[in-house]
Amino acid sequence: MTNEGSSGAAPVSRLADEFNKLPGIGPKTAQRLTYFLIRMPEEDARSLAEAIIAVKERIILCTTCYNITEINPCDICTNVNRDQTRICVVEEALDVQALERTRSFKGLYHVLHGVISPMNGVGPDDLRIHPLLERLKGDSQVEEIILATNPNLEGEATSMYVHKLISPLGIRITRPARGLPVGGDLEYADELTLSRAIEGRQDF
Description:
Dna Topoisomerase Vi A Subunit, Chain: A, domain 2, 7 strands, about 10% strand
């Protein structure tokens, strides 16, 4: 997308260019969002800008589970009422939110922040796999690891890799039941499907 000649239009072009960098946002959608913001009341636009800045300034990664949080360790890791013997391994922080909405899983989490994807240049060292192994080696309470990566090619490959590394530790390894659609993402699954998948998990 090129900048328009008029200096007055430069901020418009810049904003559209920034929107175009977001995942799933093409040039036309970027333009629609830009002109929507132009028509938006200034108070609402400032509120949106402040919310974006607050996320960048205040949100960090929990050094235990690598979920996004404002405090470190996060609320889930420090909650003594959670089941300390089970850790659910997920791809992204959005998956934690999806599982929490089901209210069926009371254990802890570990966020990998992606999947192994050679096509996209993402290898095991780019994920939070090593911290997971260190966490397990240092915590004798853990009895079960639930590998809840998405049921697609990359998710399955990542689960197999993590399974291979964890197996020597003698910890039970399970995966959600196959109620989840193949090729789907956890964050888009409905709460009932997710809940049943977790409750009906099977040994890996």
